[in-house]
Specification:
The chain is mainly alpha-helical. Helices cover about 60% and strands about 0% of the residues. The protein is built from 9 helices and 2 strands, in the order ααββααααααα. A hairpin with an 8-residue loop joins strand 1 (about 40) and strand 2 (about 50). The longest helix is centred in the middle third of the chain and has 26 residues, at about 80-105. It starts with a helix and ends with a helix.
């Protein structure tokens, strides 16, 4: 089983404890521990603070978990477990997205299923765990963008009248969400989708 130590002792594990990896854990933890919920991270650029996206601590995830700790304060001590879980759950989510993508492309299940399991494990995004670039390790983002584009293309070919709320609003939400995972995703997926 890959990453088995995270299931045995989740409170004691880091995917990367040097360089950017340590900094990402520290900024996520410090943001969750700070008193108020805001877009300002107070542990950098003292005394003014810094915008949360600059700290590279997965702002959408940090903000969501901070909101949970306001409602359930006992969760604050499990912030790094949650962070690790979210990173590792991305591998499973990538497999699910790939399976849906292969189904859309009408690839037989006997071929699609093994490849949906194998591809997330050989993805170059997985290597980012060990370099500490956790925000760029989410292998599900680009396959999801491809899936959404192909779904839109398929509906266009079939002359389906799709309301704007089912076409552009999901894209706007998706682009906004991935921007607050890491700003690079906006450029990567935005250019890719824009040239489609």
């Amino acid at each position: 089983i890959g990453f088995k130590r995270f299931f045995v002792a989740p409170m004691d594990q880091m995917l990367c404890n040097i360089y950017d990896g340590f900094k990402n854990y520290l900024t996520f933890h410090a943001y969750v521990q700070q008193e108020e919920m805001s877009t300002i991270y107070h542990q950098m650029n003292y005394p003014f603070g810094d915008f949360i996206s600059f700290t590279d601590n997965t702002p959408i995830l940090a903000g969501a978990y901070k909101a949970l700790t306001i409602i359930f304060p006992a969760l604050a001590q499990y912030d790094l477990v949650f962070f690790n879980f979210f990173c590792l759950a991305g591998i499973i989510f990538t497999a699910i997205i790939l399976l849906k993508l292969f189904k859309l492309l009408e690839i037989p299940l006997i071929i699609a299923f093994p490849f949906a399991i194998i591809l997330p494990w050989v993805s170059p995004q997985l290597e980012r765990f060990y370099n500490g670039h956790f925000n760029l390790s989410y292998g599900w983002i680009i396959p999801l963008a491809i899936y959404m584009l192909l779904k839109f293309y398929q509906q266009t070919l079939e002359n389906q009248k799709v309301p704007i709320t089912k076409t552009f609003i999901p894209w706007a939400v998706f682009l906004l969400a991935i921007t607050f995972i890491h700003i690079y995703y906006l450029a990567i997926v935005g250019v890719f989708a824009g040239t489609f």
